[in-house]
Amino acid sequence: MLFPYTYVPHKMEKMQEFIDFIFHEVWCKAPSSGAFRLELFLGNPDLYEVMENFLITDTKGGEFFYSHVERIYAHFAMLAEPEIDQLKQWYVGNNDIENVCANDPETHIVIYRRLMTVHKDLCEHLATFFKGLYSDSLLDLAILKSKIGDIDDHYLAFVKVNDLGVCPFCGVSRILGQYSTSREAYDHYLPKAHYPFNSINFRNLAPACHHCNSSYKTSKNPAFQPSKYPTHQARGERRRKAFYPYSTQAHEIEIGMNLHSHDLDNLEPKDVSIQFGPPSRAEEIDTWRDVYGIDNHYMDTICSRSGAKEWLFCIFDEWKTSGRDPSDYLSTLRREERHNPWVDCRFLKRPFLEACERIGLFNPLPSTAPKRAP
Asked: Global pTM?
Protein backbone atom coordinates (compact mmCIF):
# COMPACT_ATOMS: atom_id res chain seq x y z
CA MET A 1 0.00 0.00 0.00
CA LEU A 2 1.61 3.23 -1.16
CA PHE A 3 0.10 5.44 1.51
CA PRO A 4 -2.40 4.96 4.35
CA TYR A 5 -5.85 6.41 4.55
CA THR A 6 -6.85 8.77 7.34
CA TYR A 7 -9.55 7.12 9.42
CA VAL A 8 -12.78 9.11 9.48
CA PRO A 9 -15.11 8.51 12.46
CA HIS A 10 -18.75 8.21 11.45
CA LYS A 11 -22.16 7.25 12.77
CA MET A 12 -21.94 3.93 10.92
CA GLU A 13 -19.46 2.71 13.52
CA LYS A 14 -22.54 2.13 15.65
CA MET A 15 -23.29 -1.01 13.67
CA GLN A 16 -20.07 -2.55 15.00
CA GLU A 17 -21.10 -1.37 18.47
CA PHE A 18 -24.35 -3.30 18.03
CA ILE A 19 -22.39 -6.41 17.07
CA ASP A 20 -20.05 -5.94 20.05
CA PHE A 21 -23.06 -5.85 22.37
CA ILE A 22 -24.66 -8.89 20.77
CA PHE A 23 -21.45 -10.89 21.01
CA HIS A 24 -20.37 -9.99 24.56
CA GLU A 25 -23.66 -9.25 26.31
CA VAL A 26 -26.01 -11.67 24.57
CA TRP A 27 -24.20 -14.61 22.97
CA CYS A 28 -21.37 -15.00 25.47
CA LYS A 29 -23.84 -14.87 28.37
CA ALA A 30 -26.24 -17.34 26.75
CA PRO A 31 -25.33 -20.33 28.98
CA SER A 32 -26.69 -18.51 32.03
CA SER A 33 -29.36 -16.26 30.47
CA GLY A 34 -32.17 -18.69 29.79
CA ALA A 35 -34.34 -18.63 26.66
CA PHE A 36 -33.71 -16.15 23.87
CA ARG A 37 -35.99 -13.12 24.22
CA LEU A 38 -36.14 -9.46 23.33
CA GLU A 39 -35.32 -8.33 26.89
CA LEU A 40 -31.73 -9.53 26.42
CA PHE A 41 -31.12 -6.34 24.43
CA LEU A 42 -32.42 -3.83 26.98
CA GLY A 43 -28.86 -2.86 27.89
CA ASN A 44 -28.56 -1.15 24.52
CA PRO A 45 -31.78 0.85 23.90
CA ASP A 46 -31.06 1.62 20.23
CA LEU A 47 -30.31 -2.01 19.47
CA TYR A 48 -33.42 -3.05 21.45
CA GLU A 49 -35.53 -0.80 19.24
CA VAL A 50 -33.96 -2.28 16.11
CA MET A 51 -34.50 -5.86 17.29
CA GLU A 52 -38.09 -5.10 18.28
CA ASN A 53 -38.74 -3.66 14.81
CA PHE A 54 -37.12 -6.68 13.15
CA LEU A 55 -39.32 -9.00 15.21
CA ILE A 56 -42.66 -7.39 14.36
CA THR A 57 -42.10 -6.20 10.78
CA ASP A 58 -41.77 -8.33 7.68
CA THR A 59 -38.52 -7.46 5.91
CA LYS A 60 -35.98 -9.81 4.39
CA GLY A 61 -33.02 -8.07 6.01
CA GLY A 62 -34.70 -7.79 9.40
CA GLU A 63 -35.74 -11.45 9.45
CA PHE A 64 -32.21 -12.47 8.44
CA PHE A 65 -30.62 -10.46 11.25
CA TYR A 66 -33.02 -11.43 14.06
CA SER A 67 -33.21 -15.11 13.18
CA HIS A 68 -29.44 -15.54 12.94
CA VAL A 69 -28.81 -13.75 16.22
CA GLU A 70 -31.29 -16.19 17.79
CA ARG A 71 -29.79 -19.29 16.15
CA ILE A 72 -26.26 -18.38 17.14
CA TYR A 73 -27.48 -17.69 20.70
CA ALA A 74 -28.74 -21.28 20.88
CA HIS A 75 -25.30 -22.60 19.92
CA PHE A 76 -23.51 -20.39 22.46
CA ALA A 77 -25.92 -21.61 25.15
CA MET A 78 -24.41 -25.10 24.83
CA LEU A 79 -20.77 -24.00 25.14
CA ALA A 80 -18.56 -24.42 28.17
CA GLU A 81 -16.85 -21.42 29.75
CA PRO A 82 -13.37 -22.20 28.26
CA GLU A 83 -14.93 -22.40 24.79
CA ILE A 84 -16.58 -19.02 25.22
CA ASP A 85 -13.33 -17.53 26.52
CA GLN A 86 -11.58 -18.76 23.36
CA LEU A 87 -14.26 -17.20 21.16
CA LYS A 88 -13.91 -13.92 23.06
CA GLN A 89 -10.17 -13.96 22.40
CA TRP A 90 -10.75 -14.57 18.68
CA TYR A 91 -13.42 -11.88 18.50
CA VAL A 92 -11.12 -9.26 20.01
CA GLY A 93 -8.20 -10.41 17.84
CA ASN A 94 -10.14 -10.37 14.56
CA ASN A 95 -11.28 -6.83 15.26
CA ASP A 96 -7.81 -5.53 16.16
CA ILE A 97 -6.99 -4.92 12.49
CA GLU A 98 -3.83 -2.91 13.18
CA ASN A 99 -2.20 -5.63 15.28
CA VAL A 100 -3.32 -8.35 12.88
CA CYS A 101 -1.47 -6.46 10.14
CA ALA A 102 1.59 -6.14 12.39
CA ASN A 103 1.49 -9.92 13.02
CA ASP A 104 1.49 -9.25 16.75
CA PRO A 105 1.98 -12.64 18.47
CA GLU A 106 -0.35 -11.56 21.31
CA THR A 107 -3.22 -10.98 18.87
CA HIS A 108 -4.97 -14.31 18.35
CA ILE A 109 -7.14 -14.53 15.26
CA VAL A 110 -9.35 -17.15 13.69
CA ILE A 111 -10.48 -17.86 10.15
CA TYR A 112 -13.49 -19.91 9.18
CA ARG A 113 -11.41 -22.93 8.17
CA ARG A 114 -9.93 -23.12 11.66
CA LEU A 115 -13.25 -22.37 13.39
CA MET A 116 -14.93 -25.13 11.39
CA THR A 117 -12.62 -27.71 12.98
CA VAL A 118 -13.70 -26.60 16.47
CA HIS A 119 -17.37 -25.61 16.15
CA LYS A 120 -18.73 -26.82 12.82
CA ASP A 121 -22.43 -25.93 13.22
CA LEU A 122 -21.74 -22.65 15.00
CA CYS A 123 -19.19 -21.74 12.33
CA GLU A 124 -21.72 -22.22 9.54
CA HIS A 125 -24.22 -19.88 11.22
CA LEU A 126 -21.53 -17.29 12.03
CA ALA A 127 -20.32 -17.36 8.43
CA THR A 128 -23.80 -16.77 7.03
CA PHE A 129 -24.49 -14.01 9.54
CA PHE A 130 -21.25 -12.05 9.23
CA LYS A 131 -21.02 -12.37 5.45
CA GLY A 132 -24.62 -11.13 5.24
CA LEU A 133 -24.19 -8.13 7.52
CA TYR A 134 -22.63 -6.07 4.77
CA SER A 135 -25.65 -6.13 2.47
CA ASP A 136 -28.05 -3.53 1.08
CA SER A 137 -31.08 -5.54 2.15
CA LEU A 138 -30.02 -4.99 5.75
CA LEU A 139 -28.16 -1.67 5.79
CA ASP A 140 -30.86 0.08 3.75
CA LEU A 141 -33.63 -0.71 6.25
CA ALA A 142 -35.15 2.51 7.60
CA ILE A 143 -34.97 1.55 11.27
CA LEU A 144 -31.29 0.66 10.97
CA LYS A 145 -30.39 3.74 8.92
CA SER A 146 -32.04 5.92 11.57
CA LYS A 147 -29.51 4.56 14.07
CA ILE A 148 -26.31 4.11 12.06
CA GLY A 149 -26.70 6.43 9.07
CA ASP A 150 -25.95 5.71 5.44
CA ILE A 151 -22.87 4.21 3.81
CA ASP A 152 -23.00 6.71 0.93
CA ASP A 153 -22.83 9.50 3.52
CA HIS A 154 -19.85 7.75 5.11
CA TYR A 155 -18.12 7.62 1.71
CA LEU A 156 -18.74 11.33 1.14
CA ALA A 157 -17.26 12.21 4.53
CA PHE A 158 -14.39 9.81 3.86
CA VAL A 159 -13.31 11.23 0.49
CA LYS A 160 -13.56 14.82 1.72
CA VAL A 161 -10.71 13.94 4.08
CA ASN A 162 -8.95 11.41 1.84
CA ASP A 163 -8.96 13.61 -1.25
CA LEU A 164 -5.81 12.62 -3.14
CA GLY A 165 -8.05 11.13 -5.83
CA VAL A 166 -5.95 8.02 -6.43
CA CYS A 167 -6.18 4.46 -5.14
CA PRO A 168 -3.61 3.98 -2.35
CA PHE A 169 -3.30 0.28 -3.09
CA CYS A 170 -1.90 0.83 -6.60
CA GLY A 171 -1.41 4.58 -7.16
CA VAL A 172 -2.43 4.12 -10.79
CA SER A 173 -6.24 4.26 -10.85
CA ARG A 174 -8.48 7.09 -9.72
CA ILE A 175 -10.72 6.90 -6.68
CA LEU A 176 -14.14 8.44 -7.22
CA GLY A 177 -14.46 11.65 -5.23
CA GLN A 178 -17.15 13.71 -3.54
CA TYR A 179 -18.55 15.11 -6.80
CA SER A 180 -19.10 11.72 -8.40
CA THR A 181 -22.63 10.33 -8.58
CA SER A 182 -21.32 6.89 -7.55
CA ARG A 183 -18.68 5.60 -5.17
CA GLU A 184 -15.95 3.00 -5.02
CA ALA A 185 -16.59 -0.34 -3.35
CA TYR A 186 -15.25 -0.85 0.15
CA ASP A 187 -12.63 -3.56 0.27
CA HIS A 188 -12.79 -5.89 3.26
CA TYR A 189 -9.05 -5.78 3.89
CA LEU A 190 -9.24 -8.96 5.97
CA PRO A 191 -11.72 -10.66 3.64
CA LYS A 192 -15.17 -11.44 4.99
CA ALA A 193 -14.91 -14.75 3.11
CA HIS A 194 -12.20 -15.81 5.58
CA TYR A 195 -12.83 -13.90 8.82
CA PRO A 196 -15.78 -13.87 11.22
CA PHE A 197 -16.58 -10.93 13.49
CA ASN A 198 -15.18 -7.95 11.51
CA SER A 199 -17.27 -7.65 8.34
CA ILE A 200 -18.83 -4.35 9.47
CA ASN A 201 -15.75 -2.97 11.26
CA PHE A 202 -14.85 0.21 9.38
CA ARG A 203 -11.18 -0.16 10.29
CA ASN A 204 -11.34 -3.25 8.10
CA LEU A 205 -13.20 -1.45 5.30
CA ALA A 206 -11.19 0.66 2.88
CA PRO A 207 -12.30 2.03 -0.52
CA ALA A 208 -10.25 0.60 -3.38
CA CYS A 209 -10.34 1.05 -7.13
CA HIS A 210 -12.16 -1.58 -9.16
CA HIS A 211 -8.91 -3.10 -10.48
CA CYS A 212 -7.40 -3.55 -7.03
CA ASN A 213 -10.58 -4.81 -5.41
CA SER A 214 -12.10 -6.99 -8.12
CA SER A 215 -9.27 -7.88 -10.49
CA TYR A 216 -6.25 -8.36 -8.23
CA LYS A 217 -7.13 -8.77 -4.55
CA THR A 218 -10.52 -10.54 -4.71
CA SER A 219 -10.50 -12.67 -1.52
CA LYS A 220 -6.72 -12.95 -0.98
CA ASN A 221 -5.78 -12.92 2.68
CA PRO A 222 -3.14 -10.30 3.64
CA ALA A 223 -2.46 -11.90 7.03
CA PHE A 224 -1.37 -15.30 5.67
CA GLN A 225 1.30 -16.37 3.21
CA PRO A 226 -0.12 -18.17 0.17
CA SER A 227 0.42 -21.88 0.56
CA LYS A 228 -0.11 -25.06 -1.40
CA TYR A 229 -1.15 -26.60 1.89
CA PRO A 230 -4.50 -25.18 3.07
CA THR A 231 -4.15 -26.82 6.48
CA HIS A 232 -1.29 -24.42 7.25
CA GLN A 233 -3.80 -21.58 7.42
CA ALA A 234 -6.20 -23.76 9.38
CA ARG A 235 -3.50 -24.24 12.03
CA GLY A 236 -2.67 -20.53 12.06
CA GLU A 237 0.74 -21.03 10.43
CA ARG A 238 2.55 -18.99 7.80
CA ARG A 239 1.43 -15.61 9.10
CA ARG A 240 2.89 -12.44 7.58
CA LYS A 241 2.95 -8.69 8.09
CA ALA A 242 0.82 -6.40 5.96
CA PHE A 243 0.37 -2.65 5.65
CA TYR A 244 -2.43 -1.35 7.87
CA PRO A 245 -4.79 0.77 5.72
CA TYR A 246 -5.30 3.35 8.50
CA SER A 247 -1.77 3.59 9.86
CA THR A 248 -0.82 6.96 11.33
CA GLN A 249 2.69 6.50 9.93
CA ALA A 250 3.62 6.94 6.26
CA HIS A 251 4.54 3.74 4.44
CA GLU A 252 7.46 5.36 2.57
CA ILE A 253 7.80 2.84 -0.23
CA GLU A 254 10.81 3.32 -2.48
CA ILE A 255 10.64 2.27 -6.14
CA GLY A 256 13.54 1.89 -8.56
CA MET A 257 13.77 0.47 -12.08
CA ASN A 258 16.25 -0.93 -14.56
CA LEU A 259 15.79 -1.33 -18.33
CA HIS A 260 17.34 -4.24 -20.21
CA SER A 261 16.43 -3.18 -23.74
CA HIS A 262 16.87 -0.10 -25.94
CA ASP A 263 13.89 -1.06 -28.10
CA LEU A 264 11.22 1.16 -26.58
CA ASP A 265 8.76 0.43 -29.39
CA ASN A 266 8.65 -3.22 -28.37
CA LEU A 267 9.10 -2.92 -24.63
CA GLU A 268 7.91 -6.00 -22.73
CA PRO A 269 7.80 -6.87 -19.02
CA LYS A 270 10.94 -9.00 -19.38
CA ASP A 271 12.80 -5.84 -20.40
CA VAL A 272 12.01 -4.05 -17.13
CA SER A 273 12.91 -4.88 -13.53
CA ILE A 274 11.39 -3.07 -10.56
CA GLN A 275 12.96 -2.81 -7.12
CA PHE A 276 10.99 -2.04 -3.99
CA GLY A 277 12.24 -0.75 -0.64
CA PRO A 278 13.14 0.00 2.03
CA PRO A 279 14.45 -3.36 3.31
CA SER A 280 13.00 -2.59 6.75
CA ARG A 281 9.48 -2.95 5.26
CA ALA A 282 10.29 -5.91 3.01
CA GLU A 283 7.66 -8.24 4.50
CA GLU A 284 4.82 -5.70 4.23
CA ILE A 285 5.93 -4.81 0.71
CA ASP A 286 6.01 -8.46 -0.37
CA THR A 287 2.49 -8.93 1.02
CA TRP A 288 1.26 -5.83 -0.81
CA ARG A 289 2.84 -7.01 -4.08
CA ASP A 290 1.28 -10.46 -3.74
CA VAL A 291 -2.22 -9.41 -2.67
CA TYR A 292 -2.66 -6.60 -5.21
CA GLY A 293 -0.66 -8.06 -8.10
CA ILE A 294 1.52 -4.97 -8.04
CA ASP A 295 4.29 -6.23 -10.33
CA ASN A 296 1.79 -7.21 -13.02
CA HIS A 297 -0.19 -3.98 -12.55
CA TYR A 298 2.89 -1.79 -12.87
CA MET A 299 4.37 -3.72 -15.80
CA ASP A 300 1.09 -3.30 -17.65
CA THR A 301 1.25 0.44 -17.02
CA ILE A 302 4.90 0.79 -17.97
CA CYS A 303 4.85 -1.31 -21.12
CA SER A 304 1.65 0.09 -22.58
CA ARG A 305 1.90 2.81 -25.23
CA SER A 306 -0.37 5.02 -23.15
CA GLY A 307 1.92 4.58 -20.15
CA ALA A 308 5.68 4.80 -20.06
CA LYS A 309 6.09 5.28 -23.81
CA GLU A 310 3.86 8.31 -23.61
CA TRP A 311 6.00 9.65 -20.76
CA LEU A 312 8.99 9.62 -23.09
CA PHE A 313 7.26 11.95 -25.52
CA CYS A 314 7.27 14.59 -22.80
CA ILE A 315 11.02 14.63 -23.39
CA PHE A 316 11.34 13.72 -27.06
CA ASP A 317 8.54 15.95 -28.34
CA GLU A 318 7.60 18.67 -25.90
CA TRP A 319 10.91 19.38 -24.21
CA LYS A 320 13.27 18.79 -27.14
CA THR A 321 11.23 21.02 -29.46
CA SER A 322 11.42 23.75 -26.82
CA GLY A 323 15.18 23.44 -26.62
CA ARG A 324 15.16 21.95 -23.11
CA ASP A 325 17.52 19.17 -22.05
CA PRO A 326 16.10 15.90 -20.62
CA SER A 327 18.00 16.51 -17.39
CA ASP A 328 15.92 19.66 -16.90
CA TYR A 329 12.75 17.63 -17.27
CA LEU A 330 13.93 15.04 -14.75
CA SER A 331 14.85 17.74 -12.25
CA THR A 332 11.38 19.23 -12.60
CA LEU A 333 9.80 15.79 -12.30
CA ARG A 334 11.71 15.00 -9.10
CA ARG A 335 10.59 18.27 -7.58
CA GLU A 336 6.97 17.62 -8.60
CA GLU A 337 7.14 14.07 -7.23
CA ARG A 338 8.27 15.34 -3.85
CA HIS A 339 5.25 17.65 -3.82
CA ASN A 340 2.74 15.01 -4.97
CA PRO A 341 3.98 11.62 -6.23
CA TRP A 342 0.52 10.37 -7.17
CA VAL A 343 -0.32 12.83 -9.96
CA ASP A 344 0.22 11.30 -13.41
CA CYS A 345 1.97 8.28 -11.82
CA ARG A 346 5.05 10.36 -11.00
CA PHE A 347 6.17 7.70 -8.53
CA LEU A 348 6.57 5.31 -11.53
CA LYS A 349 7.37 7.89 -14.17
CA ARG A 350 10.47 9.23 -12.41
CA PRO A 351 12.25 5.85 -11.86
CA PHE A 352 11.39 4.75 -15.40
CA LEU A 353 12.84 7.87 -17.01
CA GLU A 354 15.90 7.67 -14.77
CA ALA A 355 16.40 4.11 -16.02
CA CYS A 356 16.13 5.41 -19.60
CA GLU A 357 18.77 8.02 -18.82
CA ARG A 358 21.16 5.46 -17.28
CA ILE A 359 21.26 3.31 -20.44
CA GLY A 360 21.78 6.34 -22.69
CA LEU A 361 18.37 6.59 -24.32
CA PHE A 362 18.38 10.38 -24.12
CA ASN A 363 21.60 10.81 -26.07
CA PRO A 364 21.30 11.31 -28.98
CA LEU A 365 17.59 12.05 -28.71
CA PRO A 366 16.37 11.82 -32.34
CA SER A 367 17.63 8.29 -32.97
CA THR A 368 16.19 6.83 -29.81
CA ALA A 369 12.71 8.28 -29.97
CA PRO A 370 9.99 5.62 -30.14
CA LYS A 371 7.22 5.90 -32.71
CA ARG A 372 4.14 7.62 -31.41
CA ALA A 373 0.84 5.89 -31.98
CA PRO A 374 -1.45 7.66 -34.45
From this structure: 0.91
